[in-house]
Amino acid sequence: xxxxxxxxxxxxxxxxLSGVVDVEQAEAALVEHYPRLVRLAYLVLPPxxxxxxxVLTAHALTQRxxxxxxxSGDEEVIPVQRSGEGRGGDPxxxxxxxxxxxxxxxxxxxxxxxxxxxxxxxxPLLPQVWGLRLFPRSGGADELALxxxxxxxxxxxxxxxxxxxxxxxxxxDVHKVLxxxxxxxxxxxxxxxxxxxxAYDLLKSPEFDPCSLQARPTDLMRRRQHMKAAGIxxxxxxxxxxxxGLPGDGWGPDGAAAPAYAKNPAGQAAxxxxxxxxxxxxxxxxxxxxDFSVWPARGALIGDDALLRRALAVWARPGESVQxxxxxxxxxxxxxxxAQLLFAGEVDAxxxxxxxxxxxxxxxxxxxxxxxxxxxxxARVDGATSTEAGAVVVNRxxxxxxxxxxxxxxxxxxxxxxxxxxxxxxxxxxxxGVTEPFASPAQxxxxxxxxxxxxxxxxxxxxxxxxxxxxxxxxxxxxxxxxPREATAANWSATAxxxxxxxxxxxxxxxxxxxxxxxxxxxxxxxxxxxTRADTWRGDGGRALAQFQAAxxxxxxxxxxxxxxxxxxxxxxxxxxxxxxxAGTWYLLGGGSKDIVSVGAAGGSQTPGNTLSAPLERGARAxxxxxxxxxxxxxxxx
Length: 638
What we know:
Elements: H1 23-32, H2 34-44, H3 51-63, H4 91-107, E1 132-136, H5 141-151, H6 155-165, H7 171-180, H8 186-193, E2 213-217, H9 220-244, H10 265-270, H11 283-286, H12 305-316, E3 323-326, E4 340-347, E5 350-356, E6 360-367, E7 375-380, E8 391-397, E9 400-405, E10 409-416, E11 425-426, E12 438-439, E13 451-457, E14 462-466, E15 474-478, E16 485-486, H13 489-492, E17 507-519, E18 526-536, E19 543-550, E20 553-561, E21 574-580, E22 586-592, E23 596-601, E24 607-608, E25 611-615, E26 624-628, E27 633-635
Parallel strand pairs: 3-7, 15-17
Antiparallel strand pairs: 1-2, 4-5, 5-6, 6-7, 8-9, 9-12, 10-11, 10-13, 13-14, 14-15, 15-16, 17-18, 18-19, 19-20, 21-22, 22-25, 23-24, 23-26, 26-27
Helix pairs in contact: 1-4, 2-3, 2-4, 6-7, 6-8
């Protein structure tokens, strides 16, 4: 019987965190943990506010959490909190979290007649986004069900559930935190939270991430009516301002700067379709480079100057009706100079233009019957190799995806990673290199299949990539992080579904590595330890996930974000799980990479080797430590 749960590090001895917190200390904690604090506020805010207002309010409450002066004015006592995430000893973080939690709970209080509302009960003045509705990316059915269950809880109970699951602090400390923020009956809140089944890993999903957002326009018809009236008023203000500002030097915010692109040769050239670079068809065969810079210009509309001019103008100045998206860490600004044209043509029901400026791939798409509803997408691709520059998404529709392939790609196929013994299905391409559509796993709500793109280059090597919801597919590899090799479906059959955690994060490549095997106690067979690491184009933000696989089933043992573990710079990895044998005995199992020479339970002796199996009382929590041959200590992945 497989029954696995993530390991939690033993808490450090309590520290006295009471007293006054400096502005610098609170600001450092706010900057370092801003995404987590905003997620905390978003989860505690009442869902009745609506997703757009919850997002803006969560950011506003978090940004107002700093003290008003160099020392906190209220000098409140910060309760000791033991956090499984390693932040419990930081008084700055504890102080900011208290302020965020208090204001999020206040925002859920009903307005009372005759009483002044609190600032957090009113719509936020800042931040504001005009003309767009912002909301987190949609998750699966499990996230939706959890959101509905949390919406049925009171504010304090919702806060108790989130502190348990997101902050990983014990109930005794949750009780202290709730009391510190003014909850009258913390015990009742904890009891009410017990009514929701623990699904704490879902709290870290994109469904509840107000820092990774989707945008849609507001009511366009009503906005047009309002804009006409505002336009008339604006003209009057501009005329009056011009009269008041003359004679004399201009007093505009840009000072001596010229209007956008005016008399700026580079800016004007960037908007001129005639200045676009169009690489010849055979250039890549003679070039020392093999990346996007040697892709030829393709498509039936590469001579359509009107289309290209619209694409460049929208790139430089996207209007309110344009849906703009960019992968994390990708600048969405105007082109610095003339770009390179990769593709211009009709795909499905859209006209599509693909451009490259040496740093980014830019995709412009507009409907065939007009320009309303145009889209502009950015993806960072600096330093791409021939493998990573093998394909670019040209269109998505109805859950399917089409790619434009590199000129050195000789064959294209689709392979289901969950069926390693199955054959790859050949994928047809038109004369421009655009593939026929196939099902994309990027937005699938279930993981019954995972179709990956298989590209065969001109040397005959097959390389696997997968769509993670971005313009450039992520390259799949397997093996030791120091020397990964090209992956096969067999390498990913057990871990393909874990790729859902890497979606929409600007991922460049994902490596799957079976770093340990272990014989299970009581002759229960063998288990494998697998680490999956996703690296990004921007360098930071890498994610590592350790899985425990036994009896044909896999479970997540540990996760880490923005960590070097399990990668080329820091290949060492250690993870542990609680496991129940068929006879009903509980064990603490641990698995580490081969450079780990001993593993032991926290506070106990070290066992030689890179795996551990020790009896464990049910419900007990125990951490693991490992040591390298050099004597360096290795902690579990977190």
